[in-house]
Structures are given as structure tokens and as C-alpha cells.
Amino acid sequence: MRQLADPATVAITIDDAPMPETMPGMLELLDLHHAKATFFMSGFRAALAGELVAETVRRGHAVYAHGWDHVRLDRESPRRLMEDMERCEALLAHYRPTPDPYLVRLPYNGGWRSARIHRTLNRWRPGCAIVHWGPSLEDHMTPTRCASVEDIERECRRDVDRVLADPRLAGGIILMHDQPINDRPGAQHKTAVTVTLLRQLLEGLAERGLKSVTLPPPPPQRWWRRYILT
Ligand SMILES: [Zn+2]
Fold it and tell me: Would you say residue 1 lies in a domain?
């Protein structure tokens, strides 16, 4: 899945959550703009921040598994992949019913071109679909351009303006992270960058009359058909 049917909507997808540094601010911003988002959560982080998972669900956002460990699960055995996803989903299922059909994004977007991975995910949950994306904030790079706090607003604006100008924006699936994972220069600004990016993005979407919605269920297709189309 990489595009929504309704061009008056966008789906903001947020990977790696829940990070306690950024999630409360992000949830407040989403509420302020009456926006819904879809979170792909890492199990080991969710296990440390159950209250944030509960709060995310309570505010009407969609929550799916991003694997338990943030590793290249597509390079592991099918069994390890399924066990990892199941462990993460079993935790998330404490907070909301398991969605059916299921949506997945694997760490580092691993395996989205791999028939073996699509087949394995469909063995885990029939109808399970990998969610791709259109415009990406490329937020792993934004902090690296921020030498000081004064740079944050301007450097976030560059990334947000690029996404807002993307021809795939209307009906688009937008990718961001709740805190870009890297230890590059500027890492001390990651939290401020993440919240600033989301604020500017939500303001820009509102100006364009685009409504942020949770990802709809995937269209009913056989896994191999979906593989061919992606
Ligand atoms: Zn990730």
C-alpha cells in the first residue's frame, strides 16, 4: 500500500515509537490539528512505555507492530520474523484489538521487495500487507544540519516544504519517525527536530485542506498480487 483512495486525505505514518521524549508532544500536536496518525511501534520500546501506547490508542490513532527488536528482520529466518512480530503484536493487543487485516512496516523497510517476506507475513496473519510510503521527511538527516537550536526551525522547514511540494502529497502516505535514530552530529536536537517537523507538517496540511487520517485496511488481494503491484 502506498497511496490512499481519497485525495483530500493523507496518512502520516510514524515509525519506531513510542519514545517518551517526543510522543507526548506529538500526541498534543495531532489533537490540536484534529489529525489522526498511524504508528508502527517497536516492541522493546512499547514494553517500556505502556502508558504512551495506551494514550496513543485512547486518542484514536492506529497502532501496528514494527517488530520487537529494531533489526533487519528480513535477513532472519521466517520463524524468527514471525516470532518477533507476534511478540510485538501480543504486547500491543493489551491496548487495542488486533487489527484484521494487519498492516506492517518492518525495521529499515526490510523485505518490501521480497516475495519470501510477503509470504511469511501472510503466514503470520492472512491478508497482512506491508505499508510503503510516498513523501518522506528524511528526518534522520534533519538533526545533522542543526548545529544550534536556532537552526531547527529553518532546517525543518526545508524538509517539510519538500514534502508539501511532493506531487504524491494528496492521498499520500507520509513517513516520519518519532525520533530519528542516529548518533550523527546534531543528535542532541533530535527531540526538538521531531516535534518541530510534525508541527510544521500539520500546519502545512491544514493550509492545503488535507485531512490526516489513519491508514485504511488494505484492499483484499492475494499476497502475490500485492507483491507484483508494489
Ligand atoms: Zn524503524
Answer: no
pLDDT of residue 2: 80
Question: Rounded distance, CA 54 to CA 228, Å?
Answer: 36
Is pTM beyond 0.70 here? yes
Residue 222's closest CA among 127, 132, 101, 113?
A: 127
C-alpha–C-alpha distance, residues 216 and 202, integer Å: 20
What is the enclosing helix (H) or strand (E) of 126? none
Residue 145 lies in a domain: yes
3 within a domain of the structure (yes/no)? no
Q: What is the CATH number of the domain that holds 66?
A: 3.20.20.370
Distance of CA 107 from the midpoint of ligand 1 (Å): 4
56: closest CA among 94, 2, 1? 94
Distance from the alpha carbon of residue 71 to the mean position of ligand 1, in angstroms = 8
- For residues 182, 15, 173 and 117, what is the CA-based torsion angle, rounded to 10 degrees? 100
- Kindly report the average pLDDT of the chain as a whole number: 93
